[in-house]
Write a structure and sequence with these properties.
disordered C terminus; 7-stranded antiparallel β-sheet; 5-stranded mixed β-sheet; alpha+beta; 34% strand; 17% helix
């Protein structure tokens, strides 16, 4: 009798080979994938896009690439040339320096954008230190500034300082008057015990400065004499030398009367010294004293600076003498201080040709900030005031003082924007050329410039031409002769100032929107040009004129011109002749 096979034995015989097969498939797949990744091949691609390069690699290696459209730029061309590299080595070289990454799964390669790396926020530190001199004495009041930032402190009485919330490493700039500035790099190692030693700046402290009839060390008069060297860093488009000092010299306040081109300057040194007398300093140009008086030919309610005739490009330096000792040589005229202007001179060496051109624009600020009423609003408000006036005083029609309503004499014609008509975009052009040089015996400087400016008010313009020649000849060791000749011409088309009782801006703001600039025939708007009716008279009085006609009339007569020329011959024996 046959024995029936056991079910467990039968299942084990059937399932054991199947299970072994399933267990071997991943191992075989992993082995095949590893063998495939170790396979080497060569690729040579030139001037092809990234997609075309991947297609070429897929054709050679047998790998399939997956990525979304737009990952690669079609305009970017990829040069790739490899020899006997694996798939990973080839892709690493292909994506080197890019923002893409990849993952390999069998014969498939998935390409995506690499995730952005999280940057760790820099840690803020506190810097503590002391500022000392070479004798280890504390320096109080020294300025300590973190380079590249606006963080800074001053050292205390004991020379100590502390800076908080500083990212290290940091660079500190330490400076103090009379000492050489220092630059120190702060690291986490020295942030708690930083000692900065400043050395005296003997070059400036021991300079000899001529003051009146004697000399003094600059260290003794550092606050009494200020010097500004004019160069490309601080030179700007200004009308006169005094405007260059605005905000650049301690104790000196320089302002102008208005925005009128060439407007008179008001300069005070160390405050106002007199209420009734003048406070203007004495100007000395290359040793010649000059008083900055009104250069206007006619009085139009505003002064014009006589210093505006000088070419700013010819100035080499400006010194301000603030105390009595420095200004002693000039007597009582220098009671308000002295402004020494030194023009450029030639220097020994090769000839130097300089050509400079500047252009700029200016605009009336906040022109639309004041909202003006239109014709309808103006007439309604005016007539309402007329009714209130008549009602208040009980005037009736036919009374002598009875006021009538006004109407727009121009009907539906557009309103007049007086501010837009009376202002313009200001422009300025400046060109200057100079030649300088010399040798051991002769030095020379020859320059010329032309400046053309238009203001923000119509017809306000200023044109200026300057010529200058400066020659120095050394005839002997003890004799040197120099000549300095300058010629200046300026034409300034001014507009009336406020000192004559009315200004252009005031008239532009107060003029009614129903008034027009000209009559249909092109004439000036006056009451005589309109019907003789009190209800239609557009002007305030029988002698009123529009602001535009006032500007035009002022241009016709406010055209002052001036010429300024100085010559000097200087003998300077350097040694006693034998």
């Amino acid at each position: 009798m046959k024995k029936k096979p056991d079910f467990k034995t039968w299942a084990a015989k059937i399932l054991r080979p199947l299970l072994l097969t399933l267990l071997c498939i991943p191992a075989f797949s992993s082995t095949a994938s590893a063998q495939s990744e170790r396979k080497v091949f060569s690729v040579s691609v030139e001037n092809k896009s990234m997609s075309e390069t991947l297609d070429e690699i897929s054709r050679i290696s047998g790998y399939s690439f997956f990525y979304y459209d737009g990952l690669f730029s079609s305009a970017r061309k990829v040069p790739l040339k490899t020899t006997n590299l694996t798939i990973r080595q080839t892709l690493d070289k292909l994506f080197e320096g890019s923002e893409n990454t990849y993952a390999i799964d069998g014969q498939q390669v998935f390409i995506r954008r690499a995730p952005a790396k999280k940057q760790q926020a820099p840690k803020s530190e506190t810097i503590t230190g002391w500022v000392l001199d070479k004798n280890n004495a504390p320096v109080s009041g020294a300025t300590v500034i973190v380079a590249g930032t606006n963080k800074g402190v001053t050292s205390g009485i004991q020379g100590g300082f502390q800076l908080s919330d500083i990212t290290l490493p940091a660079t500190l700039n330490i400076s103090f008057l009379g000492y050489e500035p220092r630059t120190v790099v702060v690291t986490p190692q020295n942030k708690d015990q930083l000692t900065v030693v400043l050395n005296e700046e003997s070059k400036l402290v021991d300079d000899i400065v001529v003051v009146g009839y004697g000399t003094q060390r600059r260290g003794m008069v550092s606050s009494a004499i200020s010097k500004m060297v004019v160069d490309e860093n601080n030179q700007r488009q200004v009308a006169s030398p005094g405007q260059l000092l605005q905000g650049r010299v301690a104790g000196v306040i320089s302002t102008t009367g208005s925005g009128n081109l060439g407007s008179g300057e008001r300069m005070s040194i160390r405050g106002i010294s007199s209420i009734s007398a003048g406070n203007e300093p004495l100007y000395v140009i290359d040793g010649i004293p000059i008083t900055n008086e009104d250069a206007n030919i006619f009085n139009f309610g505003e002064t014009m600076s006589s210093m505006a005739t000088i070419a700013v490009n010819d100035i080499e330096s400006i010194e301000v003498l603030k105390d009595a000792a420095s200004a002693a040589i000039y007597g009582s005229r220098a009671s308000n201080g002295v402004v020494l202007i030194t023009t450029k001179s030639g220097r020994e060496g090769k000839a130097t040709l300089r050509l400079n051109f500047q252009a700029g624009i200016s605009q009336f600020p906040n022109l639309r900030r004041v909202k003006m009423a239109n014709s309808k609003q103006y007439i309604e408000a005016y007539n309402e005031g007329v009714d209130n006036y008549n009602r208040q005083y009980g005037y009736q029609v036919g009374d002598a003082d009875y006021q009538v309503h006004i109407q727009n004499p121009f009907g539906t014609m557009p309103d007049t924007d007086w501010m837009k008509i009376g202002t313009q975009l200001g422009r300025s052009y400046n060109v200057d050329v100079s030649v300088s040089g010399g040798n051991a015996k002769t030095t020379y400087y020859v320059g010329g410039s032309y400046n053309d400016q238009t203001g923000v008010i119509r017809t306000n313009a200023m044109r200026k031409a300057n010529l200058k020649a400066k020659v120095t000849q050394k005839f002997a060791k003890w004799l040197e002769v120099g000549a300095n000749v300058s010629g200046n011409y300026m034409k300034n088309d001014q507009i009336p100032g406020s000192n004559i009782g009315s200004s252009i801006l005031e008239r532009l703001i107060h003029q009614r929107p129903i008034d027009h600039v000209y009559t249909p025939g092109g004439g000036d708007i006056t009451p005589a040009a309109l019907p003789n009716s009190r209800s239609t008279t557009p002007c305030r009085s029988s002698t009123s004129r529009s602001p535009i006609s006032r500007i035009t009339a002022s241009w016709a007569i406010s055209s002052p011109s001036s010429t300024f020329s100085t010559t000097n011959c200087k003998f300077r024996p350097t040694t006693t002749p034998t």
